[in-house]
Amino acid sequence: MTRLRQAWDRLSLYLPVVLMGLMALGTWWLVRNAPQPQELRPAAAPRHEPDYHMSGLSVRSFGPDGRLQTEVRGAVARHYPDTDTLEIDQVRIRSQGKGDRVIVATADRALSNADGTEVQLLGNAVVVREAAVVNGKAQPRLEFRGDFLHAWPQEERVRSHLPVTLLRGSKDRFTADSLEYDNLEQVLQLRGRVRGVLGPAR
Question: Which of 38, 49, 85, 165 is the most exposed place for a label (fewest CB within 10 A)?
Answer without folding.
Answer: 38
